[in-house]
Every structure is written in C-alpha cells, then in structure tokens.
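In this section we walk through a basic example: taking a raw amino acid sequence and producing a predicted 3D structure, encoded as discrete structure tokens. The instruction is simple. Fold the sequence below.
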Amino acid sequence: MSESASISSGIAERYASAVFDIAKESNSIAELEGNIDDLTAALAESAELGDLINSPIYSRDAQGKAIAAVAEKMELRPVMQNALGLMAQKRRLFVLPALLAQLRAMIAEEKGEVTAEVVSAQALTDAQVDALANTLKSSVGKEVKIKATVDATLIGGLVVKVGSKMIDTSIRSKLNSLQNAMKEVG
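The resulting token sequence is shown next.
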C-alpha cells in the first residue's frame, strides 16, 4: 500500500469510528446504512460530486457550503451531515469513499454479516442469489450479503470472493488451466 493510501485509510478509519460510535449510541445504525448507500450511489453517478471532494481548487468554505447543501438535499442523518462538514473544514473530503467503505464494513461486522463478491457470466436470479447466500452462510457461519456483478468473459460458472478466500469455478479459469497443462506436456 502506498504511503498516501495508508494515510487516507487511517483518516477514514478515525472518522468512520467516530460516526459509527455516535450512530450506535443513538440507535440509528439502520438509518446510517441508508445514508451510506445514498452517498455511494451519488458518488458513482455524479462526476461533479467527485470533483468537489477531490479537487483542491475549491476553498474550504466553498467545499463546506456545497457538501452541506448536498447533505441537506439528501436528508442525511445529522451525524453524517456533521462529519461531512468537519471533513470539509479540515480539507479531508477526499477520503469520503474510504470512509463509506469503512462504515459499511463496521456495520456489517456489528450485524454479524460478511459480504461475498460474486462475479458470474450472466446475471443471477433472485432464487440463485438466495441459494448461494444460504450455501455460503453454512460454510462461513455468518449472514452473507451478495454483491453480484456480471462478466461475460467468464463464459460460465462463478468467481466467489469472501474475505481473503476466493473460489473460481469459471469456465475461463478451467480452460486456462487446461491450456497450461497442455503446454507442460508438449
């Protein structure tokens, strides 16, 4: 990890810890989770919001006013509004994506959940997602939240990543293994 990424992650972790503790004390973790989803979606959809949090050309005051307006428009919880205001004041808005990821991880741990990243050749049906979640739950021992994406280059099968474990049952992977085995023979 680069030094700047390490510093950003440390900053995000401190803010996330404070926001999480305040939300937990006020029994508003579920609402905070909704705010995290909303902010994550807004960052993904709005290039302007990304520019606002990353660009050094905006003054502290301009960043603060803009992020306060965004937070109010999105009806974010007061704890999140205050954290964003403080981050703008301290010129720390650039760690917002890391903060959201850290908060998501803290909430999942609090709920006893793990997230499984699943890549499939075709979109999974709701029944397939439920079956996969139940199978993983029996293996992991915790509730499993599925984050599914599609990659047609897999041809078929799945790539499942839970924590540091990865299971690759894709046809692309099997073909690559077969190709490597044939190179060794020939």
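Looking at the output, two observations stand out. The first strand starts at residue 113 and ends at 120. The radius of gyration is 20 Å. In the next section we compare this with other chains.
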